[in-house]
Amino acid sequence: QASQKSISSFFKKN
Amino acid sequence: FEARLTQASLIKKILEAIKDLVTDANFDCSPEGLSLQAMDSSHVSLVSMVLHAQGFEMFRCQRAVSLGINLASLTKILKCAGNDDSITLRADEKGDKAEFVFESQSQDRLSEFELKLMDIDSEHLGIPDTKYSAIVEMPSSEYRRICSDLGVMGDTVRISVSKESVKFQVDGDIGKGSVCLHPSSVVDKPTEVVKISLEEPVDMIFSIRYLNYFAKAAPLSDTVTLSLSKDFPLQIEFKFGEQMGYLRYYLAPKID
Predict the structure, then answer these.
(1) Concatenated DSSP letters of B122-141
(2) How far apart are CA B95 and CA B68, in angstroms?
(3) Could you say which of B11, B16, B22, B195 would form a disulfide bridge with B38 (CB–CB 3.0 to 4.6 Å)?
């Protein structure tokens, strides 16, 4: 089963 | 802030394309244009919309202002606009309400609505300029069909891009299926083209449910562009025309 990552773990907070 | 668009249908379609994914969002007005960035409630995907100032019939913004809008409320108001109506959006510096004026093409019908704004504390994410490994351009109707067809078979889709093809594969409880598109060799209509530009082959897994949410943007553009890089969010772009702007979705990959 593939696990889902959060989008904010890829893009830095401004 | 005051801006006027000739065709209300553009805003109506943008809203249709994001309202099932995002509940509340800040519409950021600046002298450059109108933009929106929001994550879905599960923080798995990100919507980024830009409408350039030059795409408007009239655009005036002295100072940047954020309009916090509940998208279900905005949908109710936009239902009152005809597709061919022009739409004027106004907000003052207090930023506690926004005004919408819809005017028919013949200018014999004018309707005005006021929407209460809300304070939305949303974090703005920086999306880096990315050189993607694989870029696929295809008709948006084809994208919508693939997502809808494969979505009945399973929860996830494996997207594999090579120089020769882009393949969408689903493996579910009742069985499995795939759709494979090859780059067009004969081009009759530019809007029916499948194009692949490849740095290196990619093979990634994504949630079909989200790809289906993004397919609601198909009425905005004849073509859609999918950009992929290993272990990085998929970017799906619908352009509103050359100078107008775009709607982009980002979806975090599923990791095995």
Answers:
(1) -PPEE------SEEEEEEHH
(2) 8
(3) B22
